[in-house]
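haha ok so turns out i had the wrong file open the whole time. this is the CORRECT one, sorry everyone. sequence first:
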Amino acid sequence: MVFFFDDEYSSYQSPPPRGFVTPSNNAAARLCYETKKAVPNKLVSVYVYNRTASFPDPVEGKWAGNFIDYAIQDYGVDSDLSSNYPGLPRSRMAISSQEFVRNIFASPDALRNLRNSGYGAHMIFSMDPYNGNFRSLQLPALQLLAKELYSDELVYSETPFAKDW
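then structure:
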């Protein structure tokens, strides 16, 4: 199980309802900290956006790297996240994310940087083998990913699989 905090579409009430804290990065950090404390054997991940974009202050003396397992950078952004989440090693940072149906793809240089600089994760989403850009853009992007990150070749069976959920 993974707890993935992504604060992209929040619409905060101002002032907050009684019993709720004022929305802030520190409040989001506290939520992640308490989640990790409650379920230490589960992954706690954040999307680098809005209130979850940066946890520079410690929570109860613990830096973000102690309670965040992965931080996932926004589309195509390949900057180091050390100042956003102190104590989080590059091996738990995902950079240069890709959104396939919107034609947002990582360059060969970005993928090489990810691998050669010690970053440990990468995210793709909205892959759709039934989309018109699958053969021309999505499949080549997956092949590039296999080549640059794993020094391997992606073999496609020509059999797409529909969502099963």
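Residues 1-95 form one domain.
again sry for the mixup
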